[in-house]
Structure formats: C-alpha cells, structure tokens
Design a protein that fits this description.
The protein has 223 residues and is an all-alpha fold. It is built from 9 helices and 2 strands. The protein has a two-stranded antiparallel ribbon with strand order 1-2.
C-alpha cells in the first residue's frame, strides 16, 4: 500500500505517453481522453499519499516528472500539430507550440520550491492548462477559420504559457473538509463545470477555464 501513490503517478505518466503516441499519429482528439485519464491518476496519487500519510521527496519528484510529460510535452505536441495544420508561413513556426512544454516545466519547478503554494496555486496549474489545450481540436470543428489561423494559435500559446508562471492565485480542488460554508465557491464551480462538460464535453473546457480563473479571483477576494 505504501507504493500505491507512486504506482498511480506512474499510471499518470503511462497515460501521458499513450496520449503522445495518438497525438503524433494525428489523432489529437483521442489524445484528449488520455489527458483526462492522466488527470484522474494525478488527483488520486496525492489523495492516496495524504490518506497513507506518506510524504517523501521521491514521490514529489516523480509526480513532477510525470506531469512534465502528461501536462507539458503532450499539450506542446498538440499545439505543434495544430499550428502545423494551419496556414503557418514557415515550416519552423509549429515548434512554437513547445513553448507550452518549456513553461510547464518552469511552472512545475517553481511549484516545488515556492512555499506560498503549499495549499493553493500561484499561476495556472498544468493539468487545467492542458485540458484547455486538448479542447482546441474539438472547438476547431465549430470555429475552423479561427483555430485554423496560425496567429490565433500562436497567441493562445503565448498567453497560456504566461499564465502558467503568472502571479494569479488559483484555488486547488483539494478539500480539507466538505463543509458548504467553507467550500461554497469551490462546490459551485465544480457543479457548473460538471454540468457544462456533460452538456458540451471537451468544447466546454475553454469556458470552464475562464470560470476557474473568475471563481478563483472571487475565492481569494473573499478570503
């Protein structure tokens, strides 16, 4: 049982690797499902570590290494393919997508050393940023002209990368207790997010990201 958290972290890493294979085979939409799976494993490895009262540097480092792949390289690869499929004027421009990978690694390194982030986040967390990026192939079905434009994709790449290392406060979805009075904003956000995802699936993720930032602003302002 003491190895359960690390096993779940490895499952996160494995799911990310499979998602990358789908991505480089051109199946960007299927890659999104493995991001979801990685996110589930990432959520439960921390929960298992807390439940078993395990706190060691190996588990923390392994978690960051897995996240660099699942929530760093994978979204960068997806953006690479999206820009490559757009009207990019240069064959080198798609590599801009890996800016997301670089800033995800910086964000994770910052998280490991920033004592301000022991409970909540400063800067957008990598799983949420990745969910937003993997939603873009689905959103492109409805807005092919917009997301087929390399300048729009480049702007999304730069903005999402900067959000990762920004000073914006973002609440964590970890709960110390389930009291409505203490977690009202988090509960409302989760209910709205689940309803939106059930209604529009991956297309809803950009809206969920906006709600996440807005609700986080309200949460910390209230505190």
């Amino acid at each position: 049982m003491l190895n359960l958290p690390n096993a779940l972290t490895c499952a996160n890493l494995f799911s990310g690797c499979v998602g990358i294979v789908f991505c480089f085979n051109g199946d960007l939409k299927s890659a999104a499902y493995f991001v979801i799976l990685s996110g589930i494993f990432d959520f439960f490895d921390g929960m298992a570590a807390r439940a078993l009262k395990i706190n060691n540097s190996i588990g923390k480092d392994l978690d960051s290494l897995a996240d660099v792949v699942s929530f760093g390289f994978l979204p960068g690869a997806i953006m690479f393919h999206l820009i490559k499929a757009s009207n990019a004027p240069s064959e080198y421009l798609p590599y801009l997508g890996f800016l997301i990978t670089l800033f995800s690694a910086l964000r994770l390194a910052k998280f490991n050393t920033d004592t301000r982030q022991t409970v909540d986040f400063i800067g957008l967390n990598t799983p949420m940023n990745t969910l937003f990026i993997v939603s873009l192939p689905y959103v492109a079905d409805y807005h092919p002209t917009v997301l087929g434009n390399w300048m729009v994709l480049a702007a999304i790449t730069v903005v999402s990368s900067l959000l990762l290392v920004s000073e914006i406060q973002i609440f964590s979805l970890k709960f110390n207790n389930l009291k409505w009075s203490e977690n009202k904003i988090k509960f409302i956000f989760m209910i709205l997010s689940l309803a939106l995802f059930a209604w529009q699936q991956f297309v809803a993720l950009p809206v969920i990201l906006i709600l996440y930032i807005a609700f986080s602003f309200a949460y910390f302002r209230k505190r």
